[in-house]
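Lecture notes, continued. The same structure-token format from the folding unit now serves as the input rather than the output. Read the line below as a description of shape only.
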């Protein structure tokens, strides 16, 4: 896919809906991300949880858990973009 080119992928709307839900839930439970360093740590933690699942033998992996962790990675990336990067861009 070329830079900036987007095309519909099967299952994307469901994934984005899950990300939107997770982002809303995280905002209700936790204060805003205060810095890029904190944002990196939050994303790294979620990515490590995905990696924990990936390292398992294939027959021991739980696809639902992998999907959930990827939703959390995406939601936290969006949160850092909104809480930190957008503010720095404005500022």
């Amino acid at each position: 896919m070329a830079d900036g080119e987007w095309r519909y992928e099967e299952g994307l709307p469901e994934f984005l809906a899950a990300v939107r839900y997770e982002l809303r839930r995280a905002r209700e439970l936790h204060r805003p991300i205060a810095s890029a360093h904190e944002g990196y740590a939050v994303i790294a933690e979620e990515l490590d949880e995905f990696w924990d699942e990936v390292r398992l033998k294939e027959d021991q992996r739980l696809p639902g858990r992998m999907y959930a962790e990827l939703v959390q990675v995406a939601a936290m990336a969006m949160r850092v973009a909104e809480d930190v990067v957008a503010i720095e861009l404005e500022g």
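Point for the exam: DSSP finds three helices and no strands in the chain.
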